Amino acid sequence: MLSGNILTPEGWIHGDLSFENGRITSIVGNAADPANNDAPYILPGFIDLHVHGGGGADVMESGDAIETIARTHARYGTTSLLATTMTAPRDELMSVVAALGDVTRLRTPGGARVLGVHLEGPYINPGKLGAQPDAAVSAVLDEVLKYLSIAPIRVVTVAPEIAGHIDIISEIAARGVRVQLGHSLATYDEGVAALKHGARGFTHLFNAMSPLHHRNPGLVGAALAHAEYAEIIPDLLHVHPGAIRAAMRAIPRLYVVTDSTSATGMPDGEYRLGSQHVTKCLGGVRLSDGTLAGSTLTMDQALRNLVSLGFPVADVSARLSRYAADYLGIEDRGRLARGAWADIVVFDREFALTATYVEGESIVEYA
């Protein structure tokens, strides 16, 4: 049983939360304002839909690397995640996705639940690669359907302006896959058209996409004007706090991702991001030319960053958990409610992470 300020879908409860066999069995107590007591914060476990690596391991290595990544992120409060690929030649990427399909069937003890795969590339614009390798291709439906058949692909990032991609967006969205727009030079109108054809989100908003200008709104403008969901990386390197504030006001269910790399949870040095070498230093990860290449952000630090900007804990929590679950259509994660998975994080009054439970299992190792 856990006691403290419990954030439920209905609001804060000061009381007790119990769980058994991996599920929440009861929440009892009274409505309360956490500002009026010194009890810890008990929040839904974090859901990260954009994870490239952690603990020195990279998703593109597949195999045992996923276990390392799942355990690393659980130490920082992530209770479920999407293993996110990098752009790579077809045969290599197909092999990696097949291996990911195998590892998503069981949860690693001591690790976060891998909910499936986020295919970030290869269907992106070669003129907006960001830190993606130069192996972008146009989507072909038979190939996309092959990926979907060998692994639980939950999210696909697509550049909508590439010829044929609007039809691809419609096809895969109709199959329940969440299509995100990103790594793109799309105009505002192309972005809006993609939303009308089934795209639902935007990959790491502001980064690697056509920017907002008042006479040429770009893909950022399409997101701010029309999106219900979008990712954002609040490491305070990828996006200025002012831009975060604008996005929080404009996009109702803006949700947090880390875009984390193998350097996450590791000391400064050289690491791998897909086929590329990156350097961790000064709190970030970069290619040799200085381009930001993912991050070392963890979800507990993302919470602290957003709270430090003045956002309420309850709002921040929703952006770290419930909105991502809602986006994927998952009803029993991302919220503390009877019958939901016991995915739980506990923070002290200074927002230090003190406990994590993944499906009721206590994760005891902390950084």
From TrEMBL:
Q: Kindly state a single biological-process term from the GO annotations of this entry.
A: N-acetylglucosamine catabolic process
Query: Which key words are in the record?
Result: Carbohydrate metabolism, Hydrolase, Metal-binding
Q: Domain Amidohydrolase-related, which positions?
A: 41-360
Q: Which NCBIfam families match?
A: nagA (TIGR00221)
Q: Which SUPFAM superfamilies match?
A: Composite domain of metallo-dependent hydrolases (SSF51338), Metallo-dependent hydrolases (SSF51556)
The answer to keyword Calcium applying to this record is no
- Keyword set includes Protein biosynthesis: no
Cofactor dependency: a divalent metal cation
Instruction: Cite the binding residues for Zn(2+).
Output: 120, 183, 204
UniProt GO molecular function:
metal ion binding; N-acetylglucosamine-6-phosphate deacetylase activity
**Which InterPro entries does the entry link to?**
Amidohydro-rel, GlcNAc_6-P_deAcase, Metal-dep_hydrolase_composite, Metal_Hydrolase
**Which residues does the entry assign to the active site, renumbered to this chain?**
259
| Gene designation per UniProt | nagA
Record text on cofactor binding: Binds 1 divalent metal cation per subunit.
Q: Which family does it belong to?
A: Belongs to the metallo-dependent hydrolases superfamily. NagA family.
The record, for PANTHER family, names: N-ACETYLGLUCOSAMINE-6-PHOSPHATE DEACETYLASE
**UniProt-recorded name of the protein:** N-acetylglucosamine-6-phosphate deacetylase
